[in-house]
């Protein structure tokens, strides 16, 4: 059995004891979990924690994404979505188009709109305040989850004000949650190589902390499977955990596997290919085990792939994101997942994977079945 | 369809007493009975199943090797009178798109297979209403004469039963004639679910479970090795899946002729069965259970063709010790909307990243000599 002897033989006896007792794992523990070849031993521990927190519940949200522009001044090497202004394929939605997308629910009353885009060179903060205000007025029941910490810092820079002021003004307009993007990997040397113009780790964490203090919950992410080491991943998780100890506002952690297609970031050949399934699951599992103060771990099916996301529910994840409707960033990077899933498909997939589906809102409160 | 509720989401450290008892029995090398299999399948957590299946696999194959075969699925015809509801590949006789491969097309496909380091062809087709047994004998005989080195893995049991009925011969006579023409082994296709209650619903015109098993038993007695498959996730219950495993195990106890068991999931696109494909955790549960139950079959194959490379890699920790085929050509699953494709280099990389050494094998699991050069 997966008993104490088995873990002792793997050199993980002490880690198993800590997990069972609910004690915090150290940075070194994280490295040892990554180094262990027995994926079942790691997955079992992560699943134990997942069931302790969430039983057999698997959450999903009825949501839609709106990517408002792909014009971006950052030019991150890993990004297949970004375009320069004037470049072929560049787009920017108008406020009317954004409101129209939110109004068009296709008969599925969604509870969350997820809005992210590039760091556009000249859309001012007022433009975003106006959009949020109009969306909020048009559909007051919908939670507006918008703008990563990177976008918030960009708005602040253009407006010549500090990020806290930006957050305050957007909150007043109707913003209630930040998505977790832009964290990428915090380790400075890798961050410098993959997204040199993006705000650094300290700035990203500072914006998240400011949002938390203003009562705006945020998600957090980690982009992995590019140039980073396993130590960089554990470091990333430890920094998020420390921030959460301080400000407590992270709702959900989303490990994002790097998709290589259409990316300028060229990886060494041993990192490119179809051999990364185990690595992705292991990363989900170690995240669950390290992040003892973040309640939810998401298997984001767009990036993870639908089948692996189903499996990840047994390796620490307790959320599948949602219906999505239209997604550009992952798909332009080569995701072969479908564009949208129906509620029935999500629920059927969750049930047949063994779990009880729970429709949630952005803050993970259960949502009643929508009136048809 | 009444499905047993899917269980197994509890913590693997909180298994019920009954599960722990059976787990200890499996780990000590014991055979499990039907009741034990039911308990594991319905109550054990996914990780406990994985742990047990991997232990059984390591006991049988302690060396850190994952094998695969390089072959090509050649479908000599898609014209078929069976009209199975799960099939997106067949064409009814006279329907547009029906074909029978010519000798020239066969030759080209085999030449390409050999050029890519392939060692065998998997030759299967529909139940063609007009082709006599002579056609198949001639086809095999011609391949054997033209390509003496290639292993001919051909004609699933339903085809053999179909030939026998059409020609008013016994199953034994058909196998003898095909063997004499050059047949090397029989693929385990057409097993679907080996329970007639299910077969009459999803493949009413295909041979019965009893006849499928009889073909394999006869082939084994005549010295041919075969594989066994199972296609699940359509209209069967969990109990039917267990019936299938135990039916295969019983034949194997008598003959020892199955080289491998290959479970895979029904792919619904373009078929007459409206159901989403089985989720990956359900595939892994069944895969692990098959490794545990089939204690008399040497090899269990992962199905990357239906599950994709990521889940297939994980399957190597759920009892699978073989990565199936390099699959130079595949038509049947592709017709059902699923088309993963992997090169030899990618298969090697997937196996290595899981901590194993890839070894190319033949149908009877002998390593190919020399091994292919790494891409």
Automatic annotation (TrEMBL), chain A:
EC number: 2.5.1.120
Catalytic activity entry: 3-[(1-carboxyvinyl)-oxy]benzoate + S-adenosyl-L-methionine + H2O = 6-amino-6-deoxyfutalosine + hydrogencarbonate + L-methionine + H(+)
Ligand binding ([4Fe-4S] cluster): 72, 76, 79
Highest taxon in the source lineage: Bacteria
GO biological process terms held by the UniProt record: menaquinone biosynthetic process
InterPro entries recorded: Aldolase_TIM, CofH/MnqC-like_C, F420, FO_synthase_su2, MqnE, rSAM, rSAM_sf
Biological role: Radical SAM enzyme that catalyzes the addition of the adenosyl radical to the double bond of 3-[(1-carboxyvinyl)oxy]benzoate, leading to aminodeoxyfutalosine (AFL), a key intermediate in the formation of menaquinone (MK, vitamin K2) from chorismate.
Gene that encodes it: mqnE
Name listed for the protein in its UniProt record: Aminodeoxyfutalosine synthase
PROSITE patterns: RADICAL_SAM
Functional pathway: Quinol/quinone metabolism; menaquinone biosynthesis
Transmembrane segments: none
Amino-acid positions noted as binding S-adenosyl-L-methionine in the UniProt annotation, renumbered to this chain: 78, 184
Family: Belongs to the radical SAM superfamily. MqnE family.
Keyword Transferase: yes
């Amino acid at each position: 059995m997966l008993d104490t002897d088995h873990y002792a033989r793997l050199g993980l006896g002490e880690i198993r004891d800590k997990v069972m007792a609910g004690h915090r794992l150290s940075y070194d523990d994280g490295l040892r979990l990554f180094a262990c070849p027995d994926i079942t031993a790691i997955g079992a521990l992560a699943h134990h924690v997942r069931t302790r927190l969430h039983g057999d519940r698997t959450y999903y949200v009825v949501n839609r994404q709106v990517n408002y522009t792909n014009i971006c001044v950052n030019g991150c090497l890993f990004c297949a979505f970004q375009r320069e202004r004037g470049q072929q394929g560049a787009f920017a939605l108008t406020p009317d188009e954004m409101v129209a997308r939110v109004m068009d629910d296709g008969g599925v009353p969604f509870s969350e709109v997820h809005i992210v885009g590039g760091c556009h060179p000249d859309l001012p903060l007022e433009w975003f305040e106006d959009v949020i205000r109009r969306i909020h007025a048009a559909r007051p029941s919908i939670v507006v989850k918008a703008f990563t910490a990177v976008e918030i810092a960009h708005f602040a820079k253009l407006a010549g004000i500090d990020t806290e002021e930006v957050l305050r003004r957007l909150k007043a307009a109707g913003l209630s949650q930040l998505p977790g993007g832009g964290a990428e990997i915090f380790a400075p040397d890798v961050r410098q190589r993959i997204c040199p113009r993006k705000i650094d780790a300290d700035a990203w964490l500072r914006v998240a902390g400011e949002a938390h203090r203003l009562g705006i919950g945020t998600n957090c992410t980690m982009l992995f499977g590019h140039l980073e080491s396993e130590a960089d991943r554990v470091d990333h998780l430890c920094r998020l955990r420390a921030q959460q100890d301080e400000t407590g506002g992270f709702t959900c952690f989303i490990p994002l596997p790097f998709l290589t297609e259409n990316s300028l970031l060229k990886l060494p050949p041993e990192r490119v290919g179809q051999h990364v399934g185990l690595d992705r699951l292991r990363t989900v599992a170690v995240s669950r085990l390290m992040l003892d103060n973040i309640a939810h771990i998401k298997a984001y099916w767009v990036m993870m792939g639908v089948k692996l996301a189903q499996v990840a529910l047994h390796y620490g994840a307790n959320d599948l994101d949602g219906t999505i409707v239209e997604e550009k960033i992952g798909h332009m990077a080569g995701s072969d997942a479908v564009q949208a899933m129906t509620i029935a498909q999500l629920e059927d997939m969750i049930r047949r994977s063994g779990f009880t589906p729970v429709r949630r809102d952005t803050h993970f409160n259960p949502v009643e079945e929508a009136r048809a | 369809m009444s499905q047993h509720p899917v269980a197994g989401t509890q913590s693997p450290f909180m298994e019920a007493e009954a599960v722990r008892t059976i787990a200890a029995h499996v780990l000590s090398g014991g055979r499990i009975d039907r009741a034990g299999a039911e308990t594991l399948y319905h109550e054990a957590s996914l990780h406990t199943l994985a742990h047990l299946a991997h232990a059984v696999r390591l006991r049988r194959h302690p060396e850190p090797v994952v094998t695969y075969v390089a072959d090509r699925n050649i479908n000599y015809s898609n014209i078929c009178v069976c009209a199975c509801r799960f099939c997106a590949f067949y064409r009814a006789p006279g329907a547009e798109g029906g074909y029978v491969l010519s000798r020239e097309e066969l030759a080209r496909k085999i030449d390409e297979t050999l050029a890519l380091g392939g060692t065998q062809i998997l030759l299967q087709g529909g139940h063609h209403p007009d082709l006599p047994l002579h056609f198949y004998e001639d086809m095999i005989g011609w391949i054997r004469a033209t390509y003496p080195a290639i292993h001919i893995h051909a004609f699933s049991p339903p085809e053999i039963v179909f030939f026998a009925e059409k020609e008013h011969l016994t199953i034994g006579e058909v196998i003898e004639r095909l063997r004499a023409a050059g047949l090397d082994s029989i693929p385990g296709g057409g097993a679907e679910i080996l329970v007639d209650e299910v077969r009459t619903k999803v493949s009413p015109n295909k041979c019965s479970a009893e006849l499928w098993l009889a073909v394999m038993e006869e082939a084994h007695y005549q010295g041919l090795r075969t594989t066994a498959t199972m296609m699940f996730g359509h209209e069967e219950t969990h109990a039917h899946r267990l019936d299938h495993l135990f039916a295969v195990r019983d034949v194997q106890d008598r003959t020892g002729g199955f080289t491998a068991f290959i479970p895979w999931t029904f792919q619904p696109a373009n078929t007459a069965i409206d159901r989403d494909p089985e989720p990956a955790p359900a595939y892994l549960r069944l895969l692990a259970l098959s490794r545990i139950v089939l204690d008399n079959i040497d090899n269990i194959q992962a199905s990357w063709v239906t599950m994709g490379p990521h889940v297939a890699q994980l399957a190597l920790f759920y009892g699978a010790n073989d990565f199936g085929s390099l699959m130079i050509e595949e038509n049947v699953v592709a017709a059902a909307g699923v088309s993963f494709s992997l090169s030899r280099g990618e298969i090697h990389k997937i196996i290595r990243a899981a901590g194993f050494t890839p070894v190319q094998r033949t149908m009877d699991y002998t390593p190919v000599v020399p091994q292919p050069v790494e891409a």
